[in-house]
Amino acid sequence: MKPISCSSRRGAISGPAIVAGAKYACGRDGDAAVVVALAADHVVSDPQAFAKVCAAARDAAADDRIVTFGVHPSRPATEYGYICAGTAIGGNIFAVEKFVEKPDAKTAERYVADGYLWNSGNFMFRAGFLLDEYRRFEPASAAAVESAVETAGKDIGFVTLEPQSFSQAGAKSIDYAVMERTTRAAVMPASYGWSDVGSWQAVWELSDRDADGNAAQGSAVFVDTRGSYVAAEKQLVALFGLDNVIVVSTDDAILVARREDGDGLRRVVQKLREVAPAVTADHLKVHRPWGSYQSLDQGTRFQVKRIVVKQGGRLSLQLHHHRAEHWVVVKGTARVTIGDEVKVLHENESIYVPIGAQHRLENPGKIDLELIEVQTGSYLGEDDIVRIEDDYHRS
Question: CA–CA separation, 53 vs 188, rounded Å?
Fold first, then answer.
């Protein structure tokens, strides 16, 4: 089978994203194409076992079953939904008796005792049949997604759905849109070392731990501490006299939590949206089609950023009404257009972009371009960008 990657935010719009992949597969390979829909942020520690599961599920999918992979629980997890398997329909595949939402701890223990399976959120189906079911249950959304695929464009090697049509699709998970309503849902019990890495508890479980059960990404010191995890981007983190805690240290925030409190982070985010919304809405490092930029420092009338432009990457031809920019190249080669002048800069060279000047930055070299940008002016928001020409078709 040829691979298809269709990206979306987790959960809420997984339905439209999967429909888009199915529609594209039908156009490329025909309605009989069998598709595996996988979440990109899951971990499978035994890929050979996973491949065998997919091969075993193919016939059921070709026979118009929408097969989901139900993982044998290793613990009574509260961060996963569960599946109750019903009547056997052939081999190791069963009709789905019911799906259940993420439980509390006591209910999770009962589900595990009763033989329920974790809902992995991964599916196999015949592309044409998945489309037929979505059209039946969500006709308006299906029509919007199909129109977005039919009028899709191409951008740096990717198929880009037509945004106006796709925005008309209802934001609904594939579980709610189809799996809980179809009579053709099936589940295949499996064990292949699966985790959706949906909590810091899961990250700790997947990490290499020392003799005291501690694990770290970045610089950490553990003294009289057991069963804990540290993620540190820059600063050294030292834990003393603590057990079963999580410490996450980033440039803009620090999280300290009980390791097994799976629902706690959700409550923290809800509170932050009330008291410090910028922490949840804005990220210091922002990815763009041409590379990325990261805020290093800011104050009244100034901001400092680190900009990375990929090989062959080019920013839009643009101007700003409220800020000037100073660029210092620290790695690679920059081609800079300011007005009618084009200049090539190398490491340790700099250039000044005045307020209101049309300008463009691009990387003509063979390695990533890195530079420091110092913005000065009365307003430094990202919405002070007037794009005149753009390779990535942004407004």
Answer: 8
DSSP state of 389: E
Judgement on whether residues 128 and 76 belong to the same structural domain of the protein? yes
Amino acid at 210: D
Same domain, 106 and 125: yes
Rounded CA-CA distance 36/214 in Å is: 36
pLDDT at 157: 63
Which of 89, 49, 47 shows the shortest CA–CA distance to 67?
89
Same domain membership, residue 350 and residue 211: no
Answer positive or negative: Cα dihedral of 185, 190, 196, 202. positive
From residue 65, give the alpha-carbon distance in Å to each of 13, 115, 173, 239.
Answer: 22, 22, 18, 51
Q: Which of 222, 253, 275 is the last residue of a domain?
A: 275
CA angle 28, 33, 34 (to 5 degrees): 135
The conformation of residue 12, written as its DSSP 8-state character, comes to T
State the Cα–Cα distance between residues 51 and 340, nearest whole angstrom. 56
Question: Within this chain, do residues 262 and 299 fall inside the same structural domain, yes or no?
Answer: no
Q: pTM, whole model, 2 decimals?
A: 0.67
CB 336 within 8 A of CB 327: yes
What gap in Å lies between CA 161 and CA 176, rounded to an integer?
23
Residue 342's DSSP bridge partners are 337
Tell me, yes or no, whether 22 and 85 share the same domain: yes
Whether the CA torsion 261, 266, 267, 273 is positive or negative: it is positive
Q: Which two tokens stand for residue 75?
A: 């613990």
Listed residue (184, 183, 192, 178) closest to 69, CA to CA: 192
Least confident of 4-8, 105-109, 383-387: 4-8
CA dihedral 273, 278, 280, 282 (to 10 degrees): 160
Instruction: Report helix, strand or coil for 298.
Output: strand
Interval 214-253: pLDDT, tens: 999 999 999 999 999 999 988 999 999 999 999 999 888 8
Pair (161, 310) in one structural domain: no
From residue 377, alpha-carbon distances to 147, 302, 355, 366 in Å are 44, 7, 8, 33
Q: Select from 334, 335, 360 the least CA-distant residue to 347.
A: 334
Taking Cα atoms as reference points, which of 172, 190, 188 lies closest to residue 66? 188
Sign of CA dihedral 190, 191, 194, 200: positive
- Whole-angstrom distance, CA of residue 14 vs CA of residue 123: 11
β-strand pairing of 350-353 with 285-288: unpaired
